[in-house]
C-alpha cells in the first residue's frame, strides 16, 4: 500500500496542476492558454502600441501645399557701441598721412571728427589741424575741447 501511495500521489498532484494550468486557473508559461478576448474587445480600438504604430504608418500622409520655411530659434541681438568704432577708426587714422586724412574728413561734421581725434595720437592730430583751414581747425579744436571735458563712468 505504501508503494501505491508513493506512486499515485505525485501523479495525482501533477495531473491536478496540469488540469488547472490547461483551464487557465493556474498560470504556467507554455501550458496556460492565452486569455481569449471578448467580442467587444475584438472590434474596439486597441491600446496596443504596435497596432497603433502600424495604423499610423499605413494612413496616407497629407502633403502640405506650400513648404514652410524653417524658423529660427535663437534671436540675434545686434548692439552698436560707437566708442569701439571710434577707437578702431582712430587707430587706423593714426597710420594715414595728413594730406590723405584731410581729404577724407572734408565732408565730416566737426563733432564727428573730434570724437575720433580725441582718441588719436596728439602729434598726428596736431599735424592734421595744422594743415586744415584756420576756421575749420578752430571749430574742430572747440569740439575737441568739449569732448575732452566730458567725464564718463562717475
Write out key terms for the chains shown:
single chain, 154 residues, mainly alpha, 58% helix, rod-shaped
What does this structure look like?
Helices cover 58% and strands 0% of the residues. The protein contains eight helices and no strands. It has helices spanning 2-23, 39-42, 49-58, 82-93, 98-104, 110-117, 122-131, 134-149. The longest helix has 22 residues, at 2-23. The N and C termini lie far apart (114 Å).
Protein structure class: mainly alpha
Backbone CA Rg: 47 Å
* Order of H and E elements: HHHHHHHH
Number of beta-strand segments = 0
Summarize this entry quickly.
Helices cover 58% and strands 0% of the residues. With 154 residues, the chain is mainly α.
Amino acid at each position: 500500500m505504501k508503494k501505491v501511495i508513493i506512486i499515485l500521489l505525485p501523479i495525482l498532484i501533477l495531473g491536478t496542476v496540469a488540469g488547472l494550468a490547461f483551464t487557465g486557473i493556474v498560470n504556467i508559461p507554455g501550458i496556460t492558454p492565452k486569455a481569449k478576448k471578448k467580442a467587444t474587445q475584438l472590434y474596439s480600438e486597441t491600446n496596443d502600441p504596435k497596432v497603433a504604430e502600424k495604423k499610423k504608418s499605413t494612413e496616407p500622409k497629407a502633403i502640405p501645399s506650400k513648404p514652410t520655411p524653417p524658423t529660427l530659434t535663437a534671436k540675434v541681438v545686434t548692439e552698436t557701441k560707437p566708442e569701439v568704432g571710434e577707437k578702431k577708426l582712430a587707430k587706423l587714422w593714426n597710420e594715414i598721412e595728413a594730406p590723405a586724412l584731410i581729404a577724407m574728413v572734408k565732408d565730416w561734421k566737426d563733432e564727428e571728427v573730434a570724437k575720433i581725434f580725441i582718441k588719436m595720437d596728439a602729434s598726428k592730430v596736431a599735424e592734421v589741424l595744422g594743415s586744415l583751414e584756420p576756421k575749420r581747425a578752430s571749430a574742430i579744436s572747440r569740439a575737441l575741447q568739449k569732448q575732452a571735458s566730458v567725464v564718463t563712468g562717475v
